[in-house]
Amino acid sequence: MKFLISGKRLFLKHLNKLIKDNPMKQKVLLTLFLILCLSFAKAENPIITHIFTADPAPIVYNDTLFLYTGHDTARVNDTNYKMPDWHVFSTIDMVNWKDHGVCLSPKTFSWASGDAYAAQCLERNGKFYWFVSTFHKNDENSKGGAAIGVAVSDRPTGPFKDAIGKALVVNEMTTDMKYGWDDIDPTVFIDDDGQIYLFWGNGSCKWVKLKENMIELESIITTFKPINYIEGPWVYKRNGLYYLVYASSGTKQEMIEYCTATNIEGPWIYRGIIQENVANCFTTHPGIIDFKGKTYFFYHNGSLTTGGSYRRSVCVENMYYNPNGTIQKIIQTKIGVKPVE
Questions:
Q1: Spatial CB neighbours of 203, under 8 Å, sequence gap ≥ 6
Q2: How far apart are CA 87 and CA 101, in angstroms?
């Protein structure tokens, strides 16, 4: 980066001498300067460095990649999460990221009382539905514990409002795990026939069909336990094959493993580890997207200065498939991915 800055300054110094009183040469050299800037453009991991971010969830809309993240604000010596809100970032080239600021927080939901845990946004019929996990107040609808809510907006960056006025999923709806924080980390998928599925869960993976309006359950909740499953599911489909990617038990720290299925309702076949432990953080969280002809794998680690397990940072890598559809191991890098046009 220092080389890039000093190179630009040197170029501008000579450019100033050359273009004086020569408009035609000015146009040519300015064009060359823009080409030079683009040739030096590169991504670096982490991709967001001015705040701590976690739990990445990308979508593509109108040739722009939007990235929805949590926001870590814990102090260096804190021993638990402090996540007051969710941010949205966007890019058209995978290198330059725009921070759209705080676009949603648990305060948006009158029933919520917790932090802004993992979430995912999806576009449906011109509206954007942001499925979030937080904690529920003790009230007439729930005695507390983790819950999943839905916010809606006409734009990918908001403003968002509570789409229901209450939680979509509360702790009392799932009883297989005997603790109160298992209803977290929602991921949403729309199948080719238009059917919407919601997956989520800590300790066990849970899924349910959603109605066309995106804010009502259409089936009973099903729970199952993929091999080594912990939390953070991400569901998508490629070439007729369904993929369930998730944070796994790993070696004390989480890893990313996955299953595949020919039917989204299972059975799911375990396929192995695709991401090893991340730097300086005991959790990781997958987000996978195709953008401009390439596949990208988003995750978080604790590699920023003063970073750690409660001060995480989102990164991105290229992701590749084998001819049989299995996923190649993710290579974690500091340089990140190349720019795309």
A1: 176, 177, 179, 182, 229, 230, 231
A2: 5
CA angle 297, 298, 304 (to 5 degrees): 135
In 3-state terms, what secondary structure has residue 171?
helix
User: What is the chain's mean pLDDT, rounded?
Assistant: 91
Domain membership of residue 332 (yes or no) is no
Residues 18 and 145 in one domain: no
| Rg value, the chain, Cα | 22
In three-state secondary structure terms, 39 is helix
Residues 191 and 288 in one domain: yes
Q: What distance in Å separates the CA atoms of residue 317 and residue 28, rounded to the nearest whole number? A: 35
Strands 98-104 and 119-124: unpaired
Which tokens sit at 234?
Answer: 């991400």
Same structural domain, 179 and 301: yes
Up-side HSE of residue 44: CA atoms within 13 Å toward CB? 7
Angle at 79 between CA 302 and CA 277, to 5 degrees: 35
Q: How many structural domains compose the chain?
A: 2
CB distance 240 to 247 below 8 Å: no
Q: Which two tokens stand for residue 331?
A: 């290579």
pLDDT in tens, 234-259: 999 999 999 999 999 977 799 999 99
- Residue 83: which domain range? 46-318
- Which pTM does this prediction carry? 0.89
CA–CA distance, 311 with 303 (Å, rounded to integer): 9
Residue 229: half-sphere exposure toward Cβ, Cα within 13 Å = 28
User: What is the rounded average pLDDT of the residues 85-106?
Assistant: 98
Residues 6 or more apart whose CB falls under 8 angstroms from that of 44 comprise 1, 334, 335, 336
Q: DSSP states of 4-37 as a string?
A: HHHHHHHHHHHHHHHSTT-HHHHHHHHHHHHHHH
